[in-house]
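forwarding from the other thread:

> can someone predict this with zinc ion?

sure thing
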Amino acid sequence: MSDDRIRIFDTTLRDGEQSPGCSMNRQEKLSLARQLERLGVDVIEAGFPIASDGDFDSVQAIARELDETIVCGLARTGKLDVERAGRAVEVAKQPRIHTFIATSDIHLEHKLRMTRDRVLEEVDRAVRQARTMVDDVEFSAEDATRSDRDFLVDVFRTAVEAGATTLNVPDTVGYTTPKEYGELIAFLRQNVEGADDVVFSVHCHNDLGLAVANSLSAIRAGARQIECTVNGIGERAGNTSLEEVVMALKTRADQFPGIETGIRTREIYPSSRLLSSVTGVQVQPNKAIVGDNAFAHEAGIHQDGVLKAAITYEIMTPESIGRASNELVLGKHSGRHAFRDRLLELGFAIEGEEFERAFRRFKSLADAKKVIFNEDLEAIVSDSIQALDDRFVFGSLLLTCGSETAPRAKVALEVDGKAVERETSGVGPVDAIFRAIAELTETGSELIQYRVHAVTAGLDAQGEVSVTIEEEGRRVIGNGVHEDVMVASAKAYVHALNKLEWHKQRRHVDAPRGI
Ligand code: KIV
Ligand code: ZN
């Protein structure tokens, strides 16, 4: 790899998953991991294997699946953590262990209650242990930007001597500014012995809205790996947004001579859409690059300019990030082949039972709806990748409601493979449906939010419902899509319940949730 090639380290499935409501099950993570490989990221941080059996399973499944991408598991410096991370990624073609410990005095005193000497011992031990399992070891100094610089030099020197191949300098609390961060990277590159033989990496959080700017400044100072997430999801205000940092490097290549990434930028928009559909967390309309309005020109004077020459108001084209126009794509006579091709163009490589389920949904939608848009297909795909090892399967819904009658819902589900049915009344139709499902699944969860929106314009648009529920501090979002909003509501609730179940069944008893 050339010295000016920036490695894109995607942590959507780990740091990103730590955003409220963004937790994903194994099937969803696998679909995203496949898409991230198509996008061309260099490293996928697939999870935190010690956190739960579910995390371990997902990391292992991704490690087994991917061909071209380095698959990385996160670990604190504890023996068991490193062991679990190593076991989870050992099946990967290119495995990496990423181990970390906090280095700021604030964290040492209040969180770890460790001396600096003890931290150095931990770094040395953990990196050496990781190196017995894999050749590719990344070490992170958590809260690096609030750490004493000379101590950071000691920490990173210790990591290099123990065999680390990548040194990551996280701005864990999103505190630094571009100039300061660039100077820190330059200082470390100058003062850490062996710096020339390792890759410096940056990991920024967006608490002050500076994550992308800080990452770019670090690149100027010689960092060669950027840690980021699709749609910028992540703890609190999120992480460096992959699409923003990559498109900044590409669009302003004049400012970063020779610098390149391996990202296939036309896969950016499909990746963003897939993440939103899987998690149910939509991006804000004015979000750079992938927001609904990012390429919409509202003012007449702008529209006039763009029609005359796009360059007047467009610094990059929507096509360059894979935003296909919202054209009619398929009809009810389209067959399997055309359907598969169109999905591939949109960035969805689904196979087997997932594909069959999506195709059946497409056929029934095409019967009901005159025109099928790309957004409809995205919604169908996200609906179809939900359910392979689910405990609860939605069967059918019969609803009586209206201005003259009390709402009643009759819901049929499969619970652990057994068909069950319940009829209940409620304050409104959604309440009646949810009560029936709650009774059938015996859930102890609490409903936090219910949202509905139309997938496309038009009276025959599909409705997309997101349901947020919470149990024992774990919050998940479920999605459902259907021409009938009430059916979409039932599916969304069942999807959310399955996500909760998935996490419950794979909980690892004394492990931390997140970091
Ligand atoms: O923000 C952070 O410090 C992290 C580390 C684990 C890299 O996410
Ligand atoms: Zn982080």
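The chain is about 40% helix and 20% strand. thats all i got for now
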